[in-house]
Amino acid sequence: xxxxxxxxxxxxxxxxxxxxxxxxxxxxxxxxxxxxxxxxxxxxxxxxxxxxxxxxxxxxxxxxxxxxxxxxxxxxxxxxxxxxxxxxxxxxxxxxxxxxxxxxxxxxxxxxxxxxxxxxxxxxxxxxxxxxxxxxxxxxxxxxxxxxxxxxxxxxxxxxxxxxxxxxxxxxxxxxxxxxxxxxxxxxxxxxxxxxxxxxxxxxxxxxxxxxxxxxxxxxxxxxxxxxxxxxxxxxxxxxxxxxxxxxxxxxxxxxxxxxxxxxxxxxxxxxxxxxxxxxxxxxxxxxxxxxxxxxxxxxxxxxxxxxxxxxxxxxxxxxxxxxxxxxxxxxxxxxxxxxxxxxxxxxxxxxxxxxxxxxxxxxxxxxxxxxxxxxxxxxxxxxxxxxxxxxxxxxxxxxxxxxxxxxxxxxxxxxxxxxxxxxxxxxxxxxxxxxxxxxxxxxxxxxxxxxxxxxxxxxxxxxxxxxxxxxxxxxxxxxxxxxxxxxxxxxxxxxxxxxxxxxxxxxxxxxxxxxxxxxxxxxxxxxxxxxxxxxxxxxxxxxxxxxxxxxxxxxxxxxxxxxxxxxxxxxxxxxxxxxxxxxxxxxxxxxxxxxxxxxxxxxxxxxxxxxxxxxxxxxxxxxxxxx
Amino acid sequence: xxxxxxxxxxxxxxxxxxxxxxxxxxxxxxxxxxxxxxxxxxxxxxxxxxxxxxxxxxxxxxxxxxxxxxxxxxxxxxxxxxxxxxxxxxxxxxxxxxxxxxxxxxxxxxxxxxxxxxxxxxxxxxxxxxxxx
Lengths: 628, 133
Hints:
The structure holds 2 protein chains of 2 kinds. Helices cover 55% and strands 13% of the residues of chain A. By secondary structure, chain A is an alpha/beta fold. The two termini of chain A are 33 Å apart. Chain B starts with 9 loop residues before the first strand and ends with a helix. Chain B has 5 helices and 2 strands. The A-B interface holds A 275-276, 279-283, 285-286, 288-297, 299-300, 302, 304, 307, 309, 343-346, 348-349, 356, 359-360, 363-364, 366-367, 370-371, 374 and B 29, 31-35, 37-38, 42, 45-46, 49, 52-53, 75-76, 78-79, 81-86, 88-90, 120-121, 124-125, 127-128, 130-133.
């Protein structure tokens, strides 16, 4: 069991007035300095070293009521209140005793520029501890976090002493009693209970599938398998049909063929219509025959003679002549005879030139219509000869439509199969999950049972601790008072007073005169107390030492120059007592003479800004903190 | 018999182009007519005209055809004199006794032969040729 730790080194980066520095607390032979003095003029940076150690131990304030160092207080002045880089302090400690470097503990606290909180990492030899483990480990070394900003029981300054004087009471929460109660075990138990509560809640949230669902899921699975099997058979059939009935012509080709066919058909219809309009009418044939015969006679060089019949009505002429009585009946009868015995009527053949032109045009049109009709008929026949008929096209179209339908059916079927496969996979996974969960559920039940039983136990323990805490505090206070008296007896060289705790009306420390039993009240502020400044300081230092001892902290005692009014022999005794009793001591003082009061001093670290411009950095660090 | 023929002259047309027994294709002049010939007179006149304009007198046989008279209807009465005139003038070698027979046997049958041997287009070409010469 390690009782105490010694400082090996302190590495500081961007902390208050120090940009970069590493202070080694070992001597040139790398021996530990158990007792040492840090000295230097005011403002040199002694307190910065103490703050750096303290910050590394307890971290940064995250709230207004926190008792730790506030974040902005850490910033170098040149940052002007805004963090411009990472801040870090690394503390290297070694247990007092027969331990080597392998046992060294590296505690590194970092406050990243963009981080909300600082983080702590502890390394012991090759082992790294995570944040939570590091805090737990550190708690054993540094003790409980301080109740005031400048407050660690192993750092004794005027502030700690003031606080001690103000709150030394057993009736209310006090700085003094904070170090002597069962909060630590209570907190540990509380954390354990919180873990258990989380476990109970987590397990309670789990919705374990019921084993009663298994038969239903099994039935669903079997039914789905049947559906899939049937669909697969159907799918194979469809694939076979599709492969066997792949369309010879694609729909596009088919459309083009149909258009060609329709076009030819339309041409045929148009030609038929035109032919119908241009066909010779029967009532026109008389005229056509006359024109044809006239043209033929003309081309044969045979003139068409006007016929009597065609030109005159001989009967009328004879009748007229008879009425005139100038001609004999023989003459008129001869004229009448002309009407009966003259040549053929040629009136239809005469003067047909105009009609001939009209007939030429008409027959040409008829011929053209006939030609179109023949051509369009031939075109259709040609298309039919290559297999394109209206019926054929309809058949191909029907087959194509069926092919499309079957292809779509196959698509839908494949999709359904895929969905059913997915569904089946889900059901099978659910079945597996239920079967697996049977095991996990029983494990969880065991965990749940354990957590609940532990919680019952913890509740009892916590109740007991809370009940016992009050008495414990009284007992500890009594014990601590004994230790205060113990330290007083050793350190006080005047032997005139003994420490006394006055409980009424207000608890406070006092000193009782050994000779006349008169009482002198202690206050750090001498105006409110009746004890002298030196007496008050010594009593409070003894109190701090007693509390530090009982707090469990394992750090070296750091005595800042807080006993200005104590006489020299007593100071000497104080320093020797602390160094012996706590095995290590860091004495911080402004005064060169006081530094010499310490016996068995292992070294004096002089802090000086004489050769440092503004900030301590890697270059001037050695000038800033120098061992003598 | 005199060379002069009247509308009462009886002639005949081949049965294959007669209204009762004929072929529709021939009765419409291979489709050039909107309706079939009705009665034998106009059919005969058309056949004889075609024979005249193509100068075809190759067929002289006659079967027992369908008989008709040129006066059978109003329309043919208007045109048969033209035919007789043209036949007479274009065939002066045919004597008076053979004139009626020439028309009845030779021209009507040869004209029908023209119809059977030619397509509708060819018939158009024949007519155009006659008109354009």
